[in-house]
Amino acid sequence: MSSLYTGVSGLTTSQNALNTTAHNLTNINTKGYVRQQVVQADSTYFNWGVNHLTTFQTGIGVDIQTVRQVRDTFLDKSYRKEIGRQGFYEVQYEAVSEVESMLGELEGVAFQNALEELWESLQEVGKQPGAIESRADFIKNAQSFIERADIVYNQLNEYQVNLNTQITGKVNRINKIAEEIEKLNNDIRHYESTGIENANDLRDTRNSLIDELGKIINITYKEHMDGVVTVNAEGMPLVTESNVYKMGTAKISATSNLLKPVWTGYDNIDVYELEKPSTTKDDTDVGSLKGLLVARGDKQARYTDIPVRGNYATDKAYDDAVKNYNDTLNTSVIMTVQAQFDQLIHGVVTAINDILSPNVKVTLDDGSEIWILDEENAPIGMDEPDYTMGEALFNRKSVDRYSAPTTVNILNADGTTTSKSVRIYNEEDSSDVYTMFTIGEIEINSKISSNHSVLPLSSNNGSNEVDYRAAEALLGLWDNPFASVSPDTPVSNFKDYYVAFIGDLSIRGQQLESISVNQATMVDRIDSQRQQVIGVSSDEELTNLIKFQHAYNASSRFITVVDQMLEHILTRL
Fold first, then answer.
1. pLDDT for res 254
2. What are the residues whose beta carbons fall under 8 Å from the beta carbon of 186, sequence distance 6 or more?
3. pLDDT category of residue 215 using cuts at 50, 70 and 90
4. β-bridge mates for residue 208, sequence order
5. Mean pLDDT of the chain
6. Which helix (H) or strand (E) holds 373?
């Protein structure tokens, strides 16, 4: 009878192998499906005798040991790590492209046009300072320059805040994936608890979720003996054997509109330590969520965030500020552009203002120093009979350029003092945005825009002639040394600054694009190797189909032969 058992086991095993092969062929185009393979092994042996040399055994056929998934865990881990790194750089490259679009450098009207029109009208007013037409054109282009700058800067700020939506969406997706993995863990543990079969289709779904999770955030994972997979995200448990620890979002600060991901299950601690550099060596440049946070930055940057040597007492203090700039602000595409763009607008505005309404530093009798209107050298307007002095083209919205006339005691070079009525300049304070000539706080002087003759370009020597010193200063303004785009670059004039500014952005974009493309190529190569292992080959499966069909037929024929033998024996008794 054991011979019949042998034949039946062959039929059963071959039928199951055919079913598995058919299942593979059915899912040949199913995304995330991993081909399954039947592993056969000897069935139980019957012991019917023993001697001093061996045990006499009779086999009763074949059994299916397992239906396994064909995977390469090394390729899986490599794929999930590299696709996460690809996501990190891709979102930053997308941010650069968005910023270039805002500046009009990819299509539409470039901001450079507004800058060039201001420069051209500045040249004309320098050549013909007494012509009302050139003054009107200059004031109109100055207004357009500020309006265009406001539009670009507001778009940058809105885009920065709107990235909150993407960040929140990715955090929610991480939580959803974690919940689905936990559910699949429970289902797999339940179905495989008997030890009879593997829940391979559920495992396929779980592996696809882990692939997706790996692109969003840096993960590590481990499969346990009971089939449960535990997942850590950024070094913290996300999915354990019995629980899910979710993420949430919180404001960076009480006054900020920007959000950051936090672990709600761990007392709202930060998910990322963004003050640490993101490097491939340390695997800290992984995950599109972190890429979004790095690209966005943690605040709205202004020109005061770029270190300038003259603002620091010592070289060490300046070097420390430069290091902090490179480690924090310069890593963010948006914050870098905000600061560099604001520096350009601040420089143009204050340079023109200081020609039309110059200041001079004086020392008071108490030893303190203040800036006051330089009445000796300041040009005046053509507005008879006022001949206005001290009116700048650009004003701050909330703070006047000068205080009301105040009498002060000025310390002279020979040690004597002079009592004088002066107009004290209200200096910029980096801790108070309303005192700064920064984008959003600048407007055209309403007195000048309503009466072009108030624009101070006449000499204050009583001749009512053009102030040629001011005119020459305006003509040479664009070629004067201005500032560097970043602390590590040379100082440029206004003409070259914008070119360097766009060039710096373009180089950053090219670097990010190059890394993204290289990462995509690497990911495709790894995935191709992975598909060679896990993918279904129609040729191979059809070969298996024929093989198992022949095995089934052979088992059937074997049973027929045994049946005929038994019939022959019984009929001869």
1. 85
2. none
3. very high
4. none
5. 88
6. strand 369-373
Nearest to 480, CA basis, from 340, 348, 345? 348
Dist CA 537 CA 544 (whole Å): 11
Q: Cα–Cα distance between 527 and 83 in angstroms, integer?
A: 10
Contact 245, 236 (CB under 8 A): yes
3-state helix, strand, coil in the chain (%, to 5): 55, 15, 30
Q: Using an 8 Å Cβ cutoff, are 130 and 138 in contact? A: no
Looking only at the bridges linking them, the beta strands covering 55-59 and 62-69 are unpaired
Retrieve residue 490's tokens: 């040379």
Token digits for 143? 């207004």
Give the separation between CA 472 and CA 454, rounded to whole angstroms.
19
Considering only CA atoms, which of 251, 261, 249 is closest in space to residue 299?
251
β-strands 229-233, 219-223: how paired?
antiparallel
Provide the 10 A C-beta neighbour count for residue 107: 8
What's the rounded Cα separation, in Å, for the pair 5 and 12?
Answer: 10
Q: Encode burial over 466-488: b for 16+ CB neighbours within 10 A, e otherwise.
A: bbeebbebbbebbeeebbbbbbe
Looking at residues 489-515, what average pLDDT do you find? Answer: 90
Kindly state the tokens that stand for 197. 């079969």
Q: Residue count of the chain, please give it.
A: 573
Bridge partners, 360 (sequence order): 372
Q: Which tokens sit at 87?
A: 């996501």
The CA distance from 268 to 298, in Å, is: 17
Write out the two tokens for 361: 């530093």
d(CA 563, CA 565): 5
Query: Which residues make beta-bridge pairs with 361?
Result: 371
How far, in Å, CA of 456 to CA of 467, rounded? 9
Neighbours of 162 (CB within 10 A): 11
Tens-digit pLDDT profile for residues 437-487: 999 999 999 999 999 889 998 888 777 788 888 888 888 888 888 999 988
pLDDT confidence tier of residue 106, bands split at 50, 70 and 90 = very low
Among candidates 386, 347, 317, which has minimal Cα distance to 477? 347
Let me know: does 371 contact 486? Beta carbons within 8 Å.
Answer: no
DSSP symbol at 70: -
| Number of helical (H) and strand (E) elements in the chain, helices listed first | 12, 18
519-543 residues labelled b (16+ CB within 10 A) or e (exposed): beebbeebbeebeeebbbeeeebee
The beta-strand segments (E) located in 214-336 are 219-223, 229-233, 236-239, 247-251, 259-263, 269-270
DSSP annotation of 34 reads -
DSSP letters, 45-57, are EEEEEE-SS-EEE
Residues contacting residue 515 through CB under 8 Å, at least 6 positions apart: 89
- Separation between Cα atoms, residue 433 and residue 399, nearest integer Å: 10
Q: What is the pTM of this model?
A: 0.84
Q: How far apart are CA 203 and CA 181, in angstroms?
A: 10
Dihedral (CA of 119, 124, 129, 133) sign? negative
Element (H, E) at 97: helix 73-102
